[in-house]
Write a structure and sequence with these properties.
disordered N terminus; 405 residues; 28-stranded mixed beta sheet; single chain; 10% helix; binds 2-acetamido-2-deoxy-beta-D-glucopyranose; mainly beta
Length: 405
Amino acid sequence: MRKTLLSFLFALSGLHAALADAPSRTVQNVARASCTLTALGSGKDDSPQLLTAWQACSTVVVPVGTTLNISTRLNMTGLSNKHLSLQGTMRFNPNIPYWTANGFPFTFQTQITFWILGGTNIVVDGGGTLDGAGQLWYDTFASNSSLLRPIIMTIFQGTNVLVQNIKMLNSPEWFNLVNEGKNVTFSGMTLTAASTSSHGAANTDGWDIYRSDTVVIKDSVITNGDDCVSFKPNSTNILVSNLNCTGSHGISVGSLGQFAGMFDIVENVTATNIHMSNAQNGARIKAWAGSGVGSGIVKNITFNNFIESKVDNPVVIDQCYMTSAADCAEFPSNTFIQDVFFTTISGTSTGSTVASLACSPGARCSDINVNNFTLTPPSGTAKYVCQNVNLTGNAKALFPACTVT
Ligand SMILES: *[C@@H]1O[C@H](CO)[C@@H](O)[C@H](O)[C@H]1NC(C)=O
Ligand SMILES: *[C@@H]1O[C@H](CO)[C@@H](O)[C@H](O)[C@H]1NC(C)=O
Ligand SMILES: *[C@@H]1O[C@H](CO)[C@@H](O)[C@H](O)[C@H]1NC(C)=O
Ligand SMILES: *[C@@H]1O[C@H](CO)[C@@H](O)[C@H](O)[C@H]1NC(C)=O
Ligand SMILES: *[C@@H]1O[C@H](CO)[C@@H](O)[C@H](O)[C@H]1NC(C)=O
Ligand SMILES: *[C@@H]1O[C@H](CO)[C@@H](O)[C@H](O)[C@H]1NC(C)=O
Ligand SMILES: *[C@@H]1O[C@H](CO)[C@@H](O)[C@H](O)[C@H]1NC(C)=O
Ligand SMILES: *[C@@H]1O[C@H](CO)[C@@H](O)[C@H](O)[C@H]1NC(C)=O
Ligand SMILES: *[C@@H]1O[C@H](CO)[C@@H](O)[C@H](O)[C@H]1NC(C)=O
Ligand SMILES: *[C@@H]1O[C@H](CO)[C@@H](O)[C@H](O)[C@H]1NC(C)=O
């Protein structure tokens, strides 16, 4: 009887569900094993049927060749043991007035998102595509720099989340935010942001991590217009490996210590086996200084085996981020940087400076290790710059005596 009632409800909601489990399910165990969605068709919003299926089924299949039109925001948080097998496409309809008014807001850096995904034991896979339909956003942002643009996917309060083998296209803003997550893994992802107009795909970070612990991002290819991966406040125990980043702003710790009264922690981060091409930065740590900013600690960070090609700033610490030299001298950063390893960094820069390690005055950086650098500028002699820091490691010899301010 339950089965009939469910079928009736699904028919009402427009959900075409395929009951793939055994007929002997009990009344208590009402969650359907697998439900397959069909697009409702031209002019229709598929968000409601996706949300209904997510509630009712343990696996939701979006088949190859199916494009769901996502026109209302997706709250897929708070549930357990859910699997989205995305073989087709979810396209986020670029209805700018709707999303700027209704995207889920995040106070941190004034972001909004199309989709919050959370809960426990969540898998998203299937080889399909999340299409952010960013072009209209890029073009509109060009004439309205305060336009709120949505992040495609935010893992929000998710525990044991696995996202693998998914393509993400043209995000209006960051591709992924992990906010208050624990044990979240991304693997085999392909992220591509490419504008077809003269207006760039701005702020299309690959991943931002915030208030999250145990996050893995691996075996992925990213072409975008901002940070490839960024570790924002309170990112701990993070592994980033085997990434190909093209056109990005690099793998960045920070910026940290921006907001007065806040204490930011980034600890136990390893980024290894990274190909970084045509990028603004390679391996970077940035923290604010000046009056009225925040504080924090950056500790035990390893950048290992970076192969860089045409990168503006291959190796960077900037502990006077967005602060004038005079202000940084008067108000050194209260975000301390400790136990950092830049190891086996090779390739080419676009300018003469291949490494710049600029710390605030007053010994705010300690145990900064540099090893096995083979970095080449396009012409002339490579420049190595350091300030207010005692370096260790075999690449220390490449640096002249660090300036003290
Ligand atoms: C998506 O749904 C919205 C809202 O119903 C509709 O206005 C729009 O035309 C649909 N898009 C497509 C491609 O069907
Ligand atoms: C998302 O849905 C959950 C469960 O219904 C609810 O508790 C939560 O408040 C919703 N989140 C937002 C941001 O609307
Ligand atoms: C620019 O975007 C903001 C934020 O999304 C919005 O409030 C404002 O109305 C937009 N301005 C114009 C001129 O469209
Ligand atoms: C972490 O999540 C993965 C799924 O990505 C799961 O297999 C593993 O058991 C989880 N680890 C813990 C300690 O729960
Ligand atoms: C990754 O980058 C390297 C160097 O730029 C390139 O040789 C390789 O083909 C890339 N791999 C993929 C999967 O894009
Ligand atoms: C980071 O964690 C510390 C320690 O739990 C906490 O005091 C601080 O407020 C957190 N900062 C942010 C930005 O959440
Ligand atoms: C960093 O890793 C060490 C060694 O595993 C561990 O003791 C420490 O608690 C970790 N720090 C955080 C903030 O998780
Ligand atoms: C440093 O972080 C790595 C993970 O990135 C962890 O394996 C290691 O135990 C940490 N070391 C210390 C001394 O905390
Ligand atoms: C630097 O390279 C040498 C030679 O490949 C290797 O033996 C050594 O372990 C490397 N140093 C570090 C700190 O990885
Ligand atoms: C560098 O080391 C010297 C000698 O131990 C110490 O006096 C100085 O304060 C250190 N400088 C920094 C920036 O840590």
